[in-house]
Amino acid sequence: MTTGLHLPGEHTPEPGAHEAGRQALHDDIGTRSSVITARAAATFDPVGRSVATARSFVRDTLQGWGFTDIIDDAVVLTSELVTNAVVHAGTAAEVLCLRSEDAVRIEVADRYPEREIPLQQSAVNMGSPDREGGRGLQLCAALAGNWGVEYSPTHKRVWFQLDLPARSVGTRSAGPTLPPDVLPLADGRVRVGVVQIDRAGSISAWNDDAEDLFGYPADQVTGKPLTDLAAWPHTPGISTGIAEALQLSRWEGSYGIRSSDGRVTPVYASHLRVRDADGEPSTVCLLVRDHERAVLQTPLRANGTDSGSGGSQEAGAADPFEVFIGSPAPDDLDGLLQRTVERARDMLDGDAAFLLLATDDETELEVRASTGLPSARQRFARVPVEAGPGRYGSARMPAVHEDLTVVPGAVPLLGSTGMRSVVTVPLKVEGRLTGSLGVAAEGPGRYSNEEALRLQFAADRIALAVESARLGELERLRRGSLSFLVEASDLLAGTLDRDQTLALMAQMTVPTLATWCAVYTIADQASDPYLSYVLHEDEERIDGLKALLSRIAPPDPVPTPGARIWNAPATAAHEAALRTSMRSLDLGETPRLGSGVGTTLATASAVGGETVVLPLVARNRVIGMLTLGKPTDEHFRQEILELAEDLSRRAALALDNARLYSERTAISQSLQRSLLPPELPQVPNVEVEVIYRAAGEGNEVGGDFYDLFPIRDGAYGFAIGDVCGTGPEAAAVTGLARHALRLLAREGFGGPAVLERLNSAILDEGARSRFLTLLYGELWPQEDGSAVLKVVCAGHPLPLRLRQDGSVEPAAEPQPLLGVMDDLELYEQTVTLDPGDVLLCVTDGVTERREGTRMLGDDGLTEVLTTCTGLTAGAVAARVMRAVERFASDAPSDDMAILAMRVPGLHTD
Predict the structure, then answer these.
(1) pLDDT digits (tens, 9 = 90+) for 278-300
(2) What digits encode the pLDDT tens for the residues 444-470?
(3) Residue 844 in contact with residue 797, Cβ under 8 Å?
(4) Which of 222, 607, 783, 896 has the least CB density, counted as fewest CB within 10 Å?
(5) Residues contacting 295, CB < 8 A, separation 6+
(6) CA-closest candidate to residue 104, choices 142, 158, 61
(7) What is the pLDDT of residue 427?
(8) How far apart are CA 814 and CA 127, in angstroms?
(9) Mapped to the 3 state alphabet, what secondary structure does 118-130 carry?
């Protein structure tokens, strides 16, 4: 079915016959008002169920316009005409409703053209009422003020017009006089909260009765979204939410409002979409306590009032099934179930009604719709199918309980609700239990087997439609679940950071699966669970929620798969709310939004619903718990818990991978830091500066290394080297070389002897050995301000000496590298640094810096060094590093080390 609704001021021109229809309406009304104030259109497929859907469409349209006096006649005529179109003509039916101030015109068009001239429209005798055809036109002649048939080459349109009855001002509708004991119950004065919601969904008006009902003064709620207060029974992506309901032209139903004391007040609401003189739309919400719903609820028609007079089996003379279902489309499960319980309650004159759907294994029933019950009986609460022994303890059989006080626990859903008599019947499809429908009353002995038969008949007629809609919803949910899990897996696989993984876990569950989430982690088997991350869909409540959870013991780390109920948060929240309320009463305070009292109550409301815990199990070990919560009196549906369980398994593995990565990274970094020398010693009259860069992500140490250490009084050893390769293997040889150099030098060996013994140690490593280039030297600061160096350059880039006049020259000669040959004959060279001279030592990562085919090389390094005359050792090292980084745009692929030593001038520095 396709529908379109146009309100006043939103006309769109209809082509062809629709324009003619409007003109005909104007002509027929004559001197009466000829202004069309609203229109509604719908198209129905050529199937039998379209007849019932068309009746519901016309009924709801006229009821929304307030024309209840003509609904019955309009529905009867529409049923006949749509039956002719979709059943007899076998084509789609187009229904158009046109509204004026004094009349309503309804057109039914099909795509079965006829050329023959129809009977004169003024004829009232069309033959016997028992004839097969023609009864639709006969009814039009009998019931409608004006009617007619229009033909075109492609369409046939039958229309009828019903005049609105003239009524005195204030006369709308009336009901029979009833005895006082059957009148609706009201606690004292009936309060009707009037709340106006603007285009953006925020509260713009709040009357005194609303303040009495919910405890908030107008200035505390004006400007705030209604969604902050509404406890809407809604599953994301499945059913209509409050934001959608506020956009409808008219809506009636039950939901909850979070009061200032933190609890949810069940209300019955009537929404009406209006606009002001400037055309600005808003929604007026009338709210009463749910048990006073009769004040607002639209009166229901009696059985058989929408009957047709033939045409198809779905349009029988008295069809309780169609009267019972009402108007929701078959695939709108939430609307269908809610309308079902409301009609069931009214059909048996009950005080409450409920409908439960069976889980896949048929062991439990989930509350999916209820009316007249306390808010604790919200959707998705679960009860067992077999509640007790005997046929009356099972939801698989019809049952009538005359007094629940005699058999307490027979209907677990009604415990502590005040209901005493109840009738329940199963919903079955092909012999399989799909749900249960019940109606309850506060008085005993209200129902007998006759009521059970009536309710069972209605349940049998609606069971298939409910199951079809449920399967459609389940398929949509499963498709959404697959997409959700794929996206979640991609996000979790994209990080190895523990804190980011925790944040992703919470952000994926809130608000898609739960209102709030807390993640507990366990460091090891001997540690207690620790609250690691908390998230709430309302950011202002995160701190209060974290404080509340910190005061209670964490859940037990049970490895059993699946979700389990955790009552501690709700208990603590209710106790905190009670203490805060009592303290505010003692102090004479009024709870207000945003105040300390209001924040505590809001937190209690947010945490006071169902809370479940899912274990985070990875590699056969519980590493934490994922805790999901709902606001006050809300429950999780089974499909959401199954989705959360799938997510928890993926999240647990991702969190454990992040833990392992963090641990190994910490170990690696600790070992790498141990390979670096400690703080460099202060050398008298010599400036020393080192810059070190290890190649590769996460590496602090590579194949390049440096060291500067005291050997004995007045003597210092220094080294800079490069192990073949990068990464951990090269770093292992680095550690061997650096520690061996210190040990051998302090044993009194000279430079050549130190390197020869280091060469033997490297070769002793066998297959793990790597060749090594090394510049090693000993430094003696002199009293005259100079410094004497003895150096050995074993296969390493030569050190460069910068004199005060700007000249640069090598300070040593090349000799064989280490780790290749057994017998080495090395010698040392003596260099004297005069005041102002600089000795620059680098690894080949500096000289072999490349940009395409260009390489910095020894000449490029020499050129940079000539510009460093008069600079300190730190400035020299920094200028060389900047030159290396600017030489190429790519990140360095090799380790780099720069060691600069300078003898300050006696008077110039």
Answers:
(1) 888 899 999 998 878 778 876 54
(2) 988 988 889 889 988 988 898 888 888
(3) yes
(4) 783
(5) 184, 186, 190, 192, 288
(6) 61
(7) 93
(8) 124
(9) CCCCCCCCCCCCC
